[in-house]
Amino acid sequence: MSATTAPQELAGSWTVDPVHSTASFGIRHMRVSTFRTSFKQVDAALAVEDGALRLTGRVPVESIDVHDENFRGHLLSAEFFDAANTPTIDFESTSITTADDGSLAVDGELTVKGITKPVSARGTLSQATNPYGQELTGIELETTLDRHEFGLDWNADLPTGGKVLSDDVTLYVHLEFKKS
């Protein structure tokens, strides 16, 4: 594993603020629109270890935010996330690179449906102090991946040609951390 030296402003450990953090995804649906949803629960940790940033995250699959119970059940079934056998989606960084302009590159291992694959995400890192003197760090990341690499293979043919779902899924992660 390699990692770039962390900015001096970031030291120690940071705890995620679940109220101000989200993990979501978007996928092209029926070739006419993009279906977007998120997970209601996000757990993450940010730490500087041996001079390098380390990011870990986890979302419980059961926390997917879908208001139609039949559709929600379909997403939790073995045809999609298989929540009964793989209850979480997990991430662990292997390398984080920051730039002076706040841009961020994160490489790591993503586990979905029990399948772990390397992923690369790009985004921003920002820092602030809230009105109460608490140091905050924000990370916003985005990446697009092929869902089939994670065993998310369900699809159906459309009567006019094409498939119900595209192969590409875009993941969005917005995390706000408080200094521990």
Descriptive account of the structure:
By secondary structure, this protein is mainly β. It has one domain: Lipid/polyisoprenoid-binding, YceI-like (Lipocalin, Beta Barrel). It is 4% helix and 54% strand. The chain has 1 helix and 10 strands. It has one helix at 69-76; strands at 13-16, 22-29, 33-39, 43-49, 52-60, 88-98, 103-112, 115-129, 135-146, 165-179. Mean pLDDT is 93; it is low at 1-6.
Topology:
Layout (H helix, E strand, L loop, with lengths): L12 E4 L5 E8 L3 E7 L3 E7 L2 E9 L8 H8 L11 E11 L4 E10 L2 E15 L5 E12 L18 E15 L1
Antiparallel strand pairs: 1-4, 1-10, 2-3, 2-10, 4-5, 5-6, 6-7, 7-8, 8-9, 9-10
The CATH superfamily title: Lipid/polyisoprenoid-binding, YceI-like
Largest sheet: 8 strands, antiparallel, barrel
In terms of quaternary structure, what is this?
A: single chain
Figure out the total of helices. 1
Annotated CATH topology? Lipocalin
Question: Quick gist of this model?
Answer:
This protein has one helix at about 70-75, and strands spanning about 15, 20-30, 35-40, 45-50, 50-60, 90-100, 105-110, 115-130, 135-145, 165-180. It is about 5% helix and about 55% strand.
